[in-house]
Amino acid sequence: MQSLPRLLLVLVTQLIPAQMLHLPPEGNSTGNTVMKFEEVLEKSQCRPMEQLVDVEQNFPEEVEFLYKPACVPLWRCSGCCINEELECHPTLERNITLQVMRILPPASAQPVQLTFVEHQRCECSITESIKNRPRRRKHKKTASDCEKCQSPQNKINRH
């Protein structure tokens, strides 16, 4: 019987985020204002930004539980870098513990503390795929290197 009030608490908390929704002021929704290049550039640079992160993706081993809220606000690196060879990566992280409701269907719910990683500082650095890619080196091919240029008998002798 004690789990029923907790379940009601969970249901009520689902209504609160909709009531707290922040929308831009009415003047910005008409499309009459233009954001200047400098402001666009500043807002798009690689830096920590608050993002909603899925709780279940951060704790995939706990498949039997549901979480409320299903996602939590965390600071994560995001934004654009100067060229395509660079990606926005964290250079300083910290752990943050948040309280969420862990629900075991059909009717059990309890508050739990979960620890997440937040990004505090970011920078643009070379992507892993480019770091690990072998450099292409140009070398001059000779007739002995070219399989098409060799006679069938020379190919047999090489092996």
Automatic annotation (TrEMBL):
GO CC, sorted alphabetically, is:
extracellular space; membrane
Biological processes annotated in GO: induction of positive chemotaxis; positive regulation of angiogenesis; positive regulation of endothelial cell proliferation; positive regulation of mast cell chemotaxis; response to hypoxia; sprouting angiogenesis; vascular endothelial growth factor receptor signaling pathway; vascular endothelial growth factor signaling pathway
List the CDD domains hit by this protein, alphabetically.
Answer: PDGF
The positions making up the signal sequence are 1-20
Q: Which SMART domains match?
A: PDGF (SM00141)
Platelet-derived growth factor (PDGF) family profile domain: residues covered = 33-129
State if Signal is listed as a keyword.
yes
Q: Where is composition skewed (Polar residues) in this entry?
A: 150-159
Gene Ontology molecular function: any one: growth factor activity
Recite the UniProt keywords alphabetically.
Disulfide bond, Growth factor, Signal
- Matching PANTHER family: PLACENTA GROWTH FACTOR, VASCULAR ENDOTHELIAL GROWTH FACTOR
Query: Which named protein is this?
Result: Platelet-derived growth factor (PDGF) family profile domain-containing protein
